[in-house]
Amino acid sequence: MIITRKAMILALVLLATSTVATVTAQVGYHVDKQRGFKIKTPGDWECIPIDINEKWIVAKFLCDRSFVARSGDFPVDHRPMMRVIVFPDSTRDEKKVELGDAGGVIVALFGKNPYKDYADFLRQTRSGFYFSKEDRGKIGKLDYQDLEVTFDKDAAKYRLVTWVFRTQDADFAVEFEILDDHFDKLAPIARKALKSFRFITREGGLASGTTDSGGIKKLDDEDLALMGDRKKWKAMHAADRRRIRKEAEDRAVQRYLDQLPDDWEVLDNDNCLVISHADPRYTAEVVKAVNCCRRWLDETFGEISDEYVMKTIVRVCKDYAEFRAYSMGGGGSIRISSSAEIDEIVIYKDTGEGTRGGFGSIFQSMGARYLHDKDRLIAWNLPNWFDSGLRNALANARPKGSKLEFAPDVYTIREVKIAEAKKELFSARELMTMDTGNLNDRYGVFFGESTLLVRYILDGARGCRPLKDFTTRYLRYVLEAAEEIDGRLPESRPAGEWKEPDTEKEEEEQYRKRRTATAGRDDELGKMVLEKLGFDDKDWAQIEKGLQRAID
Amino acid sequence: MLTRTIMCRSPLISSWLFLILIGSILPAQEPQDCADTVQLVDGRFVTGRPMTETPAGVVIHYEHGDVLLKKELVKEAFTSRFEGVEHEYSEEEKERLAAGEVLFDGKWMKIARRDSLLERRREKQRARLVEAQKHQKWRDRYITKTKNFEFHYTIDPDQMEKYMELMETYYTVFTREWRIRKESKAERLKVCFYHNADYYHQVSGASAGVIGYFRFVPPQELHFYYDRLDERMTIDVMFHETNHYLTQLIEPRFAYPPWVNESLAEYYGASTWDPDKKKMTVGNIQAGRLTVIQDQIAGNEWQSLEGMIRLQHGEFNAIHYAWGWSFVHFLLESKQYAAKFKKFYIALARERSIKHESWNFGMYTVNADEQIKALLAYLDVADLKTLEKEWHDYVKGLEATGGRGYSEAGEQVLARGMPIKAQRFFKTAIEKGYETPTTWYGLGRACLQKEKYAEAADAFRKAIEGDPLNGSFYTNLARAISGPSAGPKEGEAASPTEKEIDRLRKLAAEIDPDNWEVMVSVELSGGD
Q1: Do A512 and B298 touch (CB under 8 A)?
Q2: Which residue ranges make up each domain of chain A?
């Protein structure tokens, strides 16, 4: 189902009537009644949406034109940016560390209150800078800290002009980012805006993000504890697992919809939620590409397990400057590494066809997410040849009609052809079994051959019977092998089997055993999987021919 | 009776002036929380806590306990309270005191005059501390030019003096040994030296894990920082990164392959400097790297020479650093190969018969096949396998020497889950005189893992003596004291030991509030 922006707005109007109006219009002013401030933004600067997980930055604006820095290593295009960042006193008093339980494992969560103040915020979110000015000022009765921060380690030198205003229970930092080459021209514009800052009556809370619409629950929530503990999760009925995942997905989607900016479009269907500021034509192409990829993933990997795979969320920024402005966050969200996460993929329309502008990055993320949702043990134990091959194949894939086409990758082919000429290729058997830890000097060849082999398999492995319908079988065996190996690790042995060493010799012996158990894990897992596949010499002969076909 | 002691400003506290009072005693001043400041010799400042100067050092009064900074740790202090020792007075002294005079700076004078002189000194002290703190900001950094370098730094100038001298000496020694000359129009190299790791990362922009770097394209710059817990590491990094600059002087447009560039830098990284004899010694063992190699050998993972030579930029990782260092060490410590290797190194950049190819940033380099051909020719070796075998045999015979080596080795094996072996290494380091706070801390952690609580506690106390402002030392001492105990049962009062454990954790949080380990420790104990 695709929902147009108009229909979404209509639906939201019904929700909006009972909520506090957060931001209202006052000619030329950005007015935030919730947090109690207003500021006159320069000229026609665009408002940039805030990440739903953002806890510190409450407003972002981007200049409507670009400036070029010429004094650095190479010319750099830059659009001046303004941000308002709030540091409530209350969060400073909160604990910086929280402990939680994820399936019996105590997890220390850092970052709930990572920033003491603006200076601390900068130190933790950026690098390559120093405070070139620290002063104090006054607008009427309103005191402020007057700061300038110099960044001189990037491709272009730039500065921040920031005034920090203090109210009874929080610091408000209003920050302008300006190229050094254009500082004399742009700094007065920034300061004029800063001088317009005022506190007004506050009608709500200081927090950023949509903390009220559910979203990701706390770590000690039973659902997430279960999803963190794979054994418990797998023991649940498939319908229950699906329901829990679907509910998590719905909550996350709602959070994104709650934060829908005025002039952004949203398209929602079973496979994806696309939030776009690019032109409709490009947006439609993104939706089509995501649908295409999801269809391919379902066909290729759908049978691995009965798990529900959550939809993909894609945010399309209209250009790089907007992408950068959006992506520069203050963090502060607690991320739980479990199936509970549903992150958005952020791209921009790249007319220069960079990696973020094409669909390759979307496909790669979708592939990784899909396998993780199907079973995270597969995602974590995917043999290197298949993992790197799949990622690279998806990175270079293109939608063709309703199908996904795996396009040739020039760099990969070149690397492999050079190795072929030197007779330094790996055999398919070697690719599928090797531990790549010490492969550094030949990793490029390994990577290239793996990509070609995986693409050959995904394309149907023409003329190679052993590799037909290979994927689902292979990944199921990977899962089995991983479960078997994990069962053998010392830590998973029942208590009493593990003897505490009393001498150096015993200690070294145990260390050697532990090291051997994990050092060759890739190697061992690969061999176990092949054993399960049961290829004989004839099969291998065909597979080697298949690989050569792929290289040719 | 009270006495007051005045501390002189000097790089190390060398003399104390004693003021002896009897009868008329200056009223104990109320602590001025904002004014009290102490600057440690390692460059850190502590402010905002009431402090007392004593003959032993400066005591900082935290809410959960007093912390003594021994006088050898203190560079400068401005405190609101003083404590001293008692003294037996002669008859004459008693008469002077009865007349309202006091002894100050070796002279008898009226109290008012003494107070006035004291106040002036304190103002000067305060001004010096403020000035020193100010220079820890990059915009107010010190800038000093020497013959070959332009130093930009935020550490104390007295400390910086020795590093500047060290770098100039290194420049002279290396360029002479390798017969290198800087181009006449070349400018001084800008060297940025930061007072701690956090500030280095913030200003230089270096990512985590990069402890120093040389920017080899214009504007050329060298960046590293002062590690107060491991000064040897500071010097190590300084030698390593400067080596990149010095070897670039051979041919500024040549990009040396990573295996030989980094390996040579590591070789020189282990150099030592005797400031009294003004002598630099090269060829020392990089103990930490050696432990990595020995660990690899234990897993039967030998680095192939050809494999190492063929590594591209970006592929050279920490394990290769270790192996690469050992290979260059093998060559440069060998009478057979040392001179030949140096010729090879220079020839790579300058020799026209070696085929060069273009690289990035307008520079050129040489591919692996050409490197191998040249290496075999210059070393006069038949093939790489022969050379590789000699190298591997050499490595088998290397051993960590010196206290620091054992301390580093201790850290490595402890990280690999071998606390028994780690204890031996740390104790050996201490026996050899390497009694740094981190060595004691390592020993404490190793003992803790083997539940040797009393020994662990002793070690942590030693660590605290050496560095009283490290919160982790206190939380670990708390763990050692608590032993296997789980704390007071619900409803029961805490025992004196349990109270002490709680106090130590809270003190740690006061001293080191941004230390994540301290935060977790306090949280795990259920503290606030």
Answers
A1: yes
A2: 5-199, 222-374, 376-494+518-552
| Interface with chain A: mutation pick from B369, B421, B475, B514, highest number of A CBs within 10 Å | B421
Say which residues have a Cβ less than 8 Å from residue B509's Cβ, sequence separation at least 6. Answer: B471, B518, B519, B522, B527
Q: What CATH number does domain A222-374 carry, 1.10.3430, 3.40.50, 3.40.30, 3.40.109?
A: 3.40.30
A5-199 with A222-374: one CATH topology? no
Comparing A438 with A487, which gets the higher pLDDT? A487
- B217 or B457, which is more confident? B457
- Interface probe for A, chosen from B210, B420, B518 (most Cβ of A below 10 Å), is B420
Is residue B298 within 8 angstroms of chain A, CB to CB?
yes
* Cβ pair A129:B202 closer than 8 A: yes
* One-letter amino acid for residue B401 of the chain: T
Please state the ipTM of this predicted complex. Answer: 0.79
Query: Are the CB atoms for B307 and B329 separated by under 8 Å?
Result: no
What are the angstrom distances between the C-alpha of A301 and each of A374, A382, A480?
8, 13, 16
Tens of pLDDT, residue by residue over B91-129, are: 888 888 888 887 777 788 888 888 888 788 888 888 888
Of A301-310, A487-496, A529-538, A541-550, give the lowest mean pLDDT range: A487-496
- Give B205 to chain A, closest Cα distance, Å: 4
User: Mapped to the 3 state alphabet, what secondary structure does A23-73 carry?
Assistant: EEEECCEEEECCCCEEEECCCCCEECCCCCCCCCEEEEEECCCCEEECCCC
pLDDT(A366) > 90? yes
B320 touching A (Cβ < 8 Å): yes
pLDDT digits 0-9 by tens, B187-224: 999 999 999 999 999 999 998 889 999 999 888 999 99
CB–CB contact B307 A503 (8 Å): no
**Yes or no: domain A5-199 corresponds to CATH 1.20.1090.10:** no
Mutate to test the interface with A, among B202, B262, B321 (most CBs of A within 10 A): B202
DSSP H or E stretch at residue B34: none
Asked if the Cβ–Cβ distance from A130 to B198 is below 8 Å, we say no
pLDDT tens-digit series, residues B475-503: 999 999 988 765 555 666 667 788 899 99
- Tokens 């401030």 sit at which residue? A37
* Interchain contact, B204 vs A507, CB within 8 Å: no
- Tens of pLDDT, residue by residue over A229-287, are 788 888 889 999 899 888 888 888 888 888 777 789 999 999 999 999 999 999 999 99
Phi, psi of A32 (to 5 degrees): -115, 95
Q: Tell me the HSE value of B454 on the side-chain side, using a 13 A CA sphere.
A: 0
Q: What is the percentage of chain A residues whose pLDDT exceeds 70?
A: 79
Alpha helices in B351-383 (DSSP H): 368-379
B205 close contact with A: CB closer than 8 A: yes
- In sequence order, what DSSP letters do the residues of A221-256 get, joined into one string? -HHHHHHHSHHHHHHS-HHHHHHHHHHHHHHHHHHH
- Please, which residues have CB within 8 angstroms of residue B99's CB and are 6 or more apart in sequence? none
Q: Which residues of B touch A99 (CB under 8 A)?
A: 520, 523-524
Q: How far apart are CA A446 and CA A430, in angstroms?
A: 9
Going from the N-terminus, what domains does chain B have, and what CATH number goes with each? 3-134 (no CATH), 135-249 (3.40.30.160), 257-394 (1.10.390), 402-524 (1.25.40.10)
